Amino acid sequence: ALDDQEIVHMRILQTIYRQLTRSKLGCPRYGEHWEELGFQEGVGGSGWCRGAEPGVFFFPVLMLLLLQNFPFCIMAVNITRVVLQALREERLSRVCNRRQEVIPVLNELYAATFLRLRVLWKGQHKTVADAGPLLKELESSAKKKPKQLLKSLEAFVSR
Q: Which positions carry the signal peptide feature in this UniProt record (predicted)?
């Protein structure tokens, strides 16, 4: 989880803020400036990564943030919806049962779906206008091929 005492975590938050605002300056850890960017109220930028494993989630997200005109907050909400639907529709039962855990599987599928989004967004030069069809494709992958998404994340992290 995000740790205010961990210098790397704080540097990541500052990078996110500077990339989203195109500012050369950092910002305070807490304040309305985070809410204005679409993060959860009162969590000072940590709402986007609560519960995620930093080594798994931060890297694909940071790569997305480096892309111009990427609708991060909207996509994050939609990917959350997609992952929860996959769970509710029992598309993750085999993986969860095999590993005997649910939350880590959800976190990894979330990160894997973001990684897939990054590959498609950058590789196919997508824009905000492509977000709707792209979300449908991500939803299909998360529901029909969750193991494949998880393997692609594992391969990415091992690099």
A: none
Distances (CA, A) of 51 to 56, 107, 110, 127, 137: 11, 8, 11, 29, 25
Return the residue matching tokens 């500077």: 18
Which residues make Cβ contacts (< 8 Å) with residue 150, sequence separation at least 6? 95, 105, 108, 109, 112
Residue 10 makes CB contacts below 8 A (sequence gap 6+) with 4, 29
Assigned token pair, 114: 């973001």
Q: How far apart are CA 96 and CA 24, in angstroms?
A: 43
Domain residue extents for the chain:
70-158
Q: Model confidence over 38-85: pLDDT tens digits? A: 565 444 545 544 444 444 455 555 555 555 566 777 888 899 999 999
CA–CA gap between residue 45 and residue 14 (Å, rounded)? 9
What is the per-residue pLDDT across 86-132, written as a single tens digit (0 to 9) for each? 999 999 999 999 999 999 999 999 999 988 998 898 889 888 888 88
State the Cα–Cα distance between residues 46 and 30, nearest whole angstrom.
9
Dist. CA 63–CA 23, nearest whole Å: 18
